[in-house]
Design a protein that fits this description.
heterodimer, A: alpha+beta, outer membrane lipoprotein receptor (LolB), chain A, 15 strands, globular, B: mainly alpha, Arc Repressor Mutant, subunit A, 2 domains, 11 helices
Chain lengths: 361, 169
């Protein structure tokens, strides 16, 4: 760890040199323009961005897809879509990785203590932000073994345009643990009116892996990926790094893949620490999902600058309940649920495969 | 200026800027692609500006500041596998120090990092940074001052006068 008490070690010239070194790593303009051309001619949601192009040498890495990448000809109308769809992720990998046997059970067995009451360390009458943060951190840590369920919705002008549903168990995994995740993505079908059309399920992913130790570098772990790509969405297929799944089919892959931390973000513990650091302030109380809750607003030192952000923390459990982000015309609402890892709840981690959908990979 | 002319002449610089901003070539590519998609629909207007590159750089900054991808946390900027092997010209100590600096750069807030990149990579003045970031010049100075403290960069004497104002963003 850095020692903050140490004397300054760099000069402004060092900083300029470091940034120049980063700048020299820039991708080529041709590569970007080629990708744009490809996007214009055959956009595939979330598929590798440069179909047919060799990936750079070296270890695989996570990358961010441009979900909903519109055709260039769509022009201004595409801008909203492009902006709204930057919020999902997938991973990419270098080709040629060997598949490995699937060692993960289809679903985890519920732990013996499943269903117990949550641990609550109430701050009592002291409802300062600091005491709330402390209680929240305790509660989140005590809920590490819960099934985390987070819904993330995006609403524009009162109309739902995207929804993510993520189940993750354990909710706060430790290195070495197997983590089960299911992530279902719904959006307005491509070509349908962004103002009036209802969202529809586009893809449903199951991702099971072993949680690696924290590292600043890319981590690869054995993982199992199941993708169900729904038909009738306007997209010809779904993509997850090097794995393509045509619409109307499903695929299953077990391989060593770049690790994706699917733990819902922002994490409850991170929020608690932010509250403790004064990045949130209590602005009121409310009743939410049948629970009394404290409402907090981001302060000017908050992490999520550029957004108006509000957070609700249950005073029954001191777990986060809801977070709302307002950015321009789009409002994002995240809802957290910490469910007991009962057999019935863990069943939610299973990706349902529609009848008559063939396996494509 | 046509879009092709812009792409041929100025896109490499925009990509270098985006890479310094994100610390990751692939994220930079994604960022610039998203901006170009928006640009393509409005090029008739943007192409008529005196400095379309400046406008696009501002779009890149706005996109970067508003991006909320999880991957920003997954791959700390400046720590990706794309960083080259040790440059042969650098002594080992210098290389390690630079990596440490990049690691600290990755831990800055996005607004602080943006201000630092605009100042030390693009060489912008406070006024220009304030215009790009949409904030006051005093705010820019506050970002830079705090960022340099976090980066453990010693101030040159002229910048040392830029004490952070009470305004923090």
């Amino acid at each position: 760890m850095d020692d903050p008490g140490r004397a300054p070690a760099h000069t402004e010239a060092d900083l300029r040199a470091a940034l120049a070194e980063l700048g020299r790593q820039a991708p080529s303009a041709d590569e970007v323009l080629h990708a744009l051309g490809e996007a214009g001619s055959r956009r595939r949601r979330g598929w590798p961005q440069f179909p047919g192009q060799p990936r750079p040498a070296g270890p695989g890495r996570m990358r961010t897809p441009l979900l909903g990448w519109p055709q260039l000809a769509v022009g201004a109308a595409a801008a909203g879509t492009a902006a709204a769809v930057t919020l999902a992720l997938t991973l990419g990998g270098s080709p040629g990785r060997t598949s490995v046997p699937d060692v993960f059970p289809a679903l985890p067995n519920p732990p013996a203590s499943a269903g117990g009451p949550p641990v609550v360390v109430s701050p009592g009458h002291d409802r300062s932000a600091a005491s709330v943060a402390k209680a929240m951190l305790t509660a989140v840590n005590a809920s590490a073994g819960a099934l985390g369920y987070v819904t993330r919705t995006y609403v524009r002008a009162g109309h739902l345009i995207q929804r993510y549903q993520t189940w993750s168990w354990p909710a706060v995994p430790s290195p070495g643990q197997v983590q089960y995740t299911r992530d279902a993505y719904s959006a307005i079908p491509r070509g349908a009116s962004q103002a009036t059309a209802p969202v529809t399920l586009i893809e449903d992913n199951g991702y099971t892996t072993i949680v690696p130790r924290p590292s600043p570098n890319l981590q690869k772990e054995q993982a199992r990926l199941i993708v169900v790509c729904y038909a009738g969405t306007g997209w010809p297929g779904c993509g997850w790094g090097r794995f393509d799944t045509p619409a109307g089919t499903w695929s299953k892959h077990t391989a060593v893949m770049p690790y994706i931390d699917y733990t819902p973000d922002p994490r409850g513990a991170d929020l608690a620490r932010q509250i403790a650091r004064g990045q949130w302030r209590i602005v009121g109380h409310a009743r939410l999902r049948g629970q009394r809750a404290i409402k907090l607003a981001q302060t000017r030192s908050g992490t999520f600058q550029g957004h108006h952000v509000f957070l609700w923390v249950s005073t029954a459990t001191y777990l986060p309940l809801r977070m709302i982000w307002v950015t321009g015309k789009v409002t994002e609402e995240d809802n957290w649920y910490y469910l007991p890892p009962s057999k019935a709840n863990l069943e939610q981690l299973r990706v349902p495969i529609p009848p008559r959908y063939p396996r494509s990979g | 200026m046509t879009f092709d002319e812009f792409a041929g002449a100025r896109l490499p610089a925009v990509l270098r800027f985006a890479t310094a901003l994100t610390g990751d070539p692939d994220l930079a590519k994604d960022l610039v692609q998203e901006v170009l998609i928006r640009v393509s629909g409005r090029w008739q207007k943007i192409g008529q500006l005196d400095r379309p590159e400046a406008y696009i750089r501002k779009m890149v900054v706005n996109e970067y500041l508003s991006w909320r991808r999880r991957s920003w946390r997954l791959i700390p900027s400046g720590m990706s596998s794309h960083l080259p092997a040790r440059p042969s010209a650098d002594p080992a100590d210098g290389y390690i120090e630079r990596q440490a600096l990049l690691a600290r750069l990755a831990r800055l807030s996005r607004r602080q990092r943006t201000a630092v990149v605009l100042r030390y990579y693009e060489g912008f003045s406070d006024a220009e940074i304030a215009e790009v970031m949409g904030c006051a010049q005093s705010t820019v100075r506050g970002h830079v001052f705090k960022a340099l403290a976090a980066l453990r960069v010693e101030l040159d004497p002229p910048l040392a006068a830029f004490a952070p104002s009470k305004e923090t963003h």
